[in-house]
Structure formats: structure tokens, C-alpha cells
Amino acid sequence: KVFINFVDHGAPGLIAFPSKFLYADDLNAALTDMHSKKMYDQLVFYLEACESGSMFATTLKEDLNIYAVTAADPNESSWATYCPPNDKVKGKSLNSCLGDLFSVKWMENSDKVGLQQTLEKQFATVKTETTRSHVERYGAMSFASEPTGDFQGDMAATNSAWLFS
């Protein structure tokens, strides 16, 4: 099982890297190639970017066993959160937005509810709580009843001290 979380800028049919773009057709070709090479059994892809739905809306096939959730539909922006005056860390304002609404909502949900809730339930909750864009999902719904922890992992159950040393 594979979990991918991509957060950056987007526009219709593309997501941005610092100096290049990845287009929807190229992303879906890579995912198709990964599937054909049996690089995963089930893949969950959370995508935070403006117009992020455009990366999957017309190209992602259900038979690839990919469950994709996007911060926005194909034609709208996604939005920042924890912006001034709500951008304080240890009492100090950073004069910057500290997160993206969709990403913050799914991460806070995972922290609050735990990783035993289903992908379906997390989608419904995050869709409701993300108020400035329309959270969408695409692809295979056949494993939406599985726990989010099967994909996102459970840090409490892992000896992860090496990650932070």
C-alpha cells in the first residue's frame, strides 16, 4: 500500500515544481506504468494544489487501484489557512500563511480521530470542513472502506526515533 501527498501550486492540467511542470497526462502515464509494473497493490494520492481535480478528472482510470483526493475541483483555487492574525508560533506572528486548508484539515483529522477511521469517512469530514474549495475524489472507490492508517501509517506504532535524531 502506498500513500502520496503532494502539496504545491497548480493550474488546469498541471502541478508545479520549483522549475518544471508535471502535466495530467504525464502523471497518469507514470501511475499507469507503476501499476503495470506491480509497484503497488493500492495507492492513495492526496493532492493539494489549485485546480488539482484537473489532474485526475478525465484521466484516472478506476482499474489502476488508485484512490485520489484533491483539494479543489478542476476549475477552482485551493486556499491557504492559518494566515495572519492566526499565524502565531510560540506567541510570535510569522506574517505568513502556515498551511493549506485541505492539507491541514486531513492532517488535523488524522491526529484528532485517529487512523482507524476509513478513507471514506475522512473524505466526508474533510470535504465538509474545507470551506473555500470543493474537495473531490477520483479513481477506485473499492477500498474506500479501509482505515486511513493502512496508508498514512501509524507513527505511534513505529519506532521512529531515527527520523528525528
Secondary-structure map:
Elements: E1 2-7, E2 10-11, E3 14-16, E4 21-23, H1 24-36, E5 43-48, E6 66-70, E7 80-81, E8 88-89, E9 92-93, E10 99-100, H2 101-113, H3 119-129, E11 136-139, H4 149-152
Explain the overall architecture.
- The chain is α+β, with helices and mostly antiparallel strands and 165 residues long.
- The chain is built from 4 helices and 11 strands; from the N terminus they run ββββαββββββααβα.
- Strands 1-5-6-11 form a 4-stranded mixed beta sheet, with no helix packed on it. The protein has a 3-stranded antiparallel beta sheet with strand order 2-3-4. A two-stranded antiparallel sheet has the order 7-10.
- A hairpin with a 4-residue loop joins β3 and β4.
- The chain is globular and about 50 Å long.
- The chain starts with a strand and ends in a 13-residue tail after the last helix.
- 28% of the residues are buried.
- The C terminus is likely disordered.
